[in-house]
Amino acid sequence: MWGELIQEVRVAQTGVQILFGFLLTVVFQPKYETLSHTDKTIYLVTVVLGATATGALIGPVSLHRLVSGRRVKPQAVRWASRLTFVGLVLLLATMTSALLLIMRVATHDDFVPWLLAPVVAWYLLCWFVLPLWTRRRYTSR
Questions:
Q1: Residue (of 44, 8, 53) closest to 26 by Cα position
Q2: What angle do CA 108, 109, 111 make, to 5 degrees?
Q3: Per the confidence metrics, is the pTM higher than 0.85?
């Protein structure tokens, strides 16, 4: 189970690290000063969410490194799995917040929530609903 978990984390880590790196550069762009107070607040929330998602998704690697060889693999897998799940939830929040900011800056229109809602619903469906349905439907008792 450990090998599968680490492979899964690698995929999510790459995405969150690229997104977080991009977010860190935004504040240094000339356009940042022209953002409204609300947009700057959304940006700061997005950066904090990205930082916490990055921490949660890198956590399993650190956990493995620090407990390797200590005969606690079942416990390490459980904790790494929990960190990964929390990281995915935080990644969902980061993506939602980043999309909200980008759409607000790009359009300045009231239909931003209507554009964002289907994307968030798609993430929820792909990342949580389908896997949970599959687990419930096909897990033997």
A1: 44
A2: 140
A3: yes
